[in-house]
Specification:
This protein is α+β, with helices and mostly antiparallel strands. It has two domains: about 45 residues, no CATH class; about 180 residues, Maf protein. Helix content is about 30%, strand content about 25%. The protein has seven helices and nine strands; from the N terminus they run H-E-E-E-H-E-H-E-E-H-E-E-H-E-H-H. Strands 3, 4, 5, 6, 7, 8 and 9 form a seven-stranded mixed β-sheet that branches. Strands 1-2 form a two-stranded antiparallel sheet. A hairpin with a 2-residue loop joins strand 7 and strand 8. The protein is elongated, with a radius of gyration of 22 Å. The two termini are about 30 Å apart.
């Protein structure tokens, strides 16, 4: 079965007209999912010509501007319907920026790149960093770098910042969440064993709290989901305030 995603009125009208013409000639039977406000409202599994007069154009689409499997899983957890598009932006930021400014700037960059291509959609961009003292920790590029990060965080409290930008044309919302995370004192054996799992290499700060990294964490103060990669409840409320969720 072939699927086609549409993001604006012109694309929808063109594709749906083709479906109708095919159904009228008996050439095709289609399955049409009508998605509005992040939820599936109608599921048509017969000839769409039967529904032409009853359809009202009021469809909006949510796009996650990230290939992060964790953010995808989090949005699925609150049962939102969305598509995923990777944003390939330059993540270089000015060195004087504070952690919360960094994540908001990068979240906006990611969302803006996709929003330019799909201005009728709601586009969600996000970025997460770990901050300890004056250092901002991204994703480790080697075992040595991962060990340096984990050794630095051992027995200490650090802060995880996640920035979120949601764009819909001129309608914009941008914010960040900060969560403080305290690690247990870690032995070299614990650190080496965790690095051997290869879990640290695609995660800011070299650990994933939702995976094996959970055993490193003594306590957190703030939003757990923000540490994973997306402050779920605040995203949900922002989408509601922007008119995506009815």
């Amino acid at each position: 079965m072939n699927y086609t995603a549409v993001y604006n009125k012109h694309e929808f009208t063109t594709i749906f007209q083709e479906m109708i013409e095919g159904a009228a000639s008996g050439a095709t039977t289609c399955r049409l999912l009508l998605v509005y406000g992040g939820r599936i409202w109608y599921d048509y599994s017969v000839s769409p010509i039967l529904y032409w007069k009853g359809l009202v154009w009021c469809m909006s689409n949510l796009i996650l501007a990230s290939q992060s499997p964790r953010r995808k899983e989090l949005l699925q957890q609150i049962q939102l319907s969305f598509s995923v598009m990777s944003s390939n932006v330059d993540e270089t930021v000015a060195p004087h920026l504070k952690p919360h400014e960094v994540v908001m700037e990068l979240a906006m960059k990611k969302a803006n790149e996709i929003s330019k291509k799909h201005p009728d959609s709601y586009v969600l961009g996000s970025d997460t960093v770990v901050a300890h003292g004056n250092s901002i920790l991204g994703k480790p590029q080697s075992e040595e770098e991962a060990k340096e990060m984990l050794t630095m965080l051992s027995g200490e409290t650090h802060s995880v910042y996640t920035g979120v930008a949601i764009l819909n044309g001129e309608n914009q919302t941008i914010f960040y969440e900060k969560t403080d995370v305290t690690f247990w004192e870690l032995t070299s054996t614990e650190i080496d064993g965790y690095i051997a799992s290869e879990e640290p290499f695609d995660k800011a700060g070299a650990y994933g709290i939702q995976g094996l990294g959970a055993k490193l964490v003594k306590e957190i103060k703030g939003d757990y989901f923000s540490v994973v990669g997306l402050p779920l409840s605040r995203v949900y409320r922002a989408l509601h305030e922007m008119g995506f969720l009815q």
